[in-house]
Amino acid sequence: MKYLKPILLVATVAAIGGGLWLRWQYESIHPSTDDAYLQANVLTIAPQVGGTVDQIAVVENQYVTAGDLLFSNKTDDLELAVQAAEARYDEAVQQAGAEITGLTSLTGQVDSARAALTDTQDTYDRTDALFKMGDVSQAALDQATTARDQAQAALDTAQAALKSGQKRAGAPGKENASVRAAQSQLTAAQINLARAQVTAPASGWIANFDLRPGAIVAAGVPQFSLVEDGDWWISANFKETDLARLRPDQPVTVSIDMYPGLTLGGTVDSLGAGSGTIFSLLPPQNASGNWVKVTQRFPVRIRLDSRPDDPALQLRAGATVSVEIDTSGLDATK
Q1: What are the two backbone dihedrals, phi and then psi, of residue 201, each rounded to the nearest 5 degrees?
Q2: pLDDT tens-digit readout, 210-244
Q3: What is the pLDDT of residues 8-30, one digit of tens each?
Q4: Each residue of 92-123: pLDDT tens digit?
Q5: Which residues contact 70 (CB under 8 A, 6 or more apart)?
Q6: Would you say 120 and 151 are in contact if contact means Cβ atoms under 8 Å apart?
Q7: How much is the pLDDT for 189?
Q8: pTM for the structure as a whole
């Protein structure tokens, strides 16, 4: 009996030591951290055209699907811009038509001048032949020559006018440069009018919303956010001493703090290339005499493979989670 207490003490110490060793073994094979956060794509909603807010179709925390109307601006000035662009387009079409009509007239003048040149050339040829036979005077030949030269000059002038008119008129119909420019302005005005209605670019939840009717918004200025209900992932910060066993595609167990008892599955997607401190606004300056070694943490991106079966258990961006990675498969490959 006198050895019972020492034996019990040794057994207790051995049990505690064995338990601690087993725990250390488990934690080395299953590294975990509670410095982890649920993440989702957060889209910034901003109008593409400025104006005065006329209608608001959503409220804070509302779920919307892609294409749903979020809000719209007043369109009075945009509608006037479309009407003005339509008028400019019609004017360009009419102007192009008038230029084409003018080309018809110029073409007719060229044809007439060419016919006149043919007649005067024939007259000159006959007069020249008669002059050589001595049947007509030099004066008659000079008159025929002058008439022919004047007809040639008239043809040259008509052809130059036609060429200038063709260059000025450009391509016919909708291919005309002025018509295409006016069409582009009309299309831009119509696009701006359509952009007065701001729709959801993706499905998700409205967040950070305080827009009110009558507010004046500027193009490109953020108004609120939309937490996208698409891909969800976890940004987990692991100690650098845990990274040696971490690999992409390793299975992960995820526990969300806001839903006790709920466990989800995940997969290691990638390991961060730098520690969290290195990307901070003021990175630490260790080149000093007061340096203290601190274990760094590196972000590990974990893809969430499953979601809660209960629709009431909504995932929320920024929620704290605990993750545990199973690295036992790494030993099996050795």
Answers
A1: -75, -15
A2: 999 999 999 999 999 999 998 899 999 999 988 88
A3: 666 666 666 655 555 555 556 88
A4: 877 766 655 555 666 666 677 677 778 777 77
A5: 45, 56, 57, 58, 64, 198, 199, 200, 206
A6: yes
A7: 94
A8: 0.68
As a three-state string, the secondary structure of the chain is CCCHHHHHHHHHHHHHHHHHHHHHHHHHHCCEEEEEEEEEEEEEECCCCCEEEEEECCCCCCEECCCCEEEEECCHHHHHHHHHHHHHHHHHHHHHHHHHHHHHHHHHHHHHHHHHHHHHHHHHHHHHHHHHHCCCCHHHHHHHHHHHHHHHHHHHHHHHHHHHHHHHHCCCHHHCHHHHHHHHHHHHHHHHHHCCEEECCCCEEEECCCCCCCCEECCCCCCEEEEEEEEEEEEEEEEHHHHHHCCCCCEEEEEECCCCCCEEEEEEEEECCCCCHHHCCCCCCCCCCCCCCCCCEEEEEEEECCCCCCCCCCCCCCCEEEEEECCHHHHHCC
CB atoms within 10 A of CB 125: 12
* Ranges of each domain in the chain: 77-192
Pairwise CA distance, residues 88 & 94, whole Å: 10
CA-to-CA distance for 51 and 133, rounded, in angstroms?
A: 90
Q: What pLDDT is attached to residue 294?
A: 77
